[in-house]
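ingest -> fold -> write
write: protein_1
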Amino acid sequence: DIGTERYTFNFTIRDSPTYFINVQSWGREEYIRSLSESFRVGDCVTIENPLVQSKEAEREEKFNPVTPSCYKLLLSENHSVVRTSSCYETDTRLLSLLHLPVKDPQDYYSLGDIVANGQSLNGRILNVLAAVMSVSQ
């Protein structure tokens, strides 16, 4: 609808050490807020009825992890569902994937590197590997 606000929520899922794909969702604030609060990093999810789309690599991979797929999943507020599995239903093979980064270990900058070389990195887009302590609005 023209003139209405739309919100977005993006995340990456994986089901093997080699294969992972970006997921993009658009919709009303209530839908996006509910979706983003429905699971956490490390949860196992089932995604029903996503739309498979070709990704625009130059545009999309600037702010999303580079994936081995030339596709992305698009979630629709009216047609798609994300279901979280209970810890008892989780396939133990998936648990080993929790600590695998989606980037080559040589493709990251440490915070120390950024502080030390900040002047020469000014204006560049970088990959940073860090632990997140908390997230809030």
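write: protein_2
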Amino acid sequence: DMAEPIQQLTRNNNPQERQSIPFTLIQRKEKLGDLLYEKRQYGKAKWACIKMKEKQYEQSICLGFMKLMRYICEQNSSGLYLGITVPIVTIVHTNEAQSAMTQAVTVAYYLPEVLQDEPPHPFDSDIIIEEWPATIVYSR
């Protein structure tokens, strides 16, 4: 099921073709010279998002990512490969008391700059295009 998206990604897997999302570095945490994480602020932008709720957190991330890859690799209204932006963001959801993680996660793909004004529509109805306000992201 994922053979074509993986082949498309492999054909287009030149680091020069990956668009890094513009951000402002807020904090950088290192330990013994190794980067543990960065706290970044991203500006207002459109993202393709999918919310998943599988039995295991890892399954939700994996399945959400695979659905986004299909969207990126031609299963969209343009019929074109959209290009990779990094990082792909995973949002972990908590219960109302914010005391525990829920099984739900959101996996999100930043739409490349050239698509921000008119993003292609996904064929998968589970994927929605959202405009996010400026957002804080922890990256590792």
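write: annotation protein_2
The first helix runs from residue 3 to 11.
The chain has a mean pLDDT of 88.
pipeline exit 0
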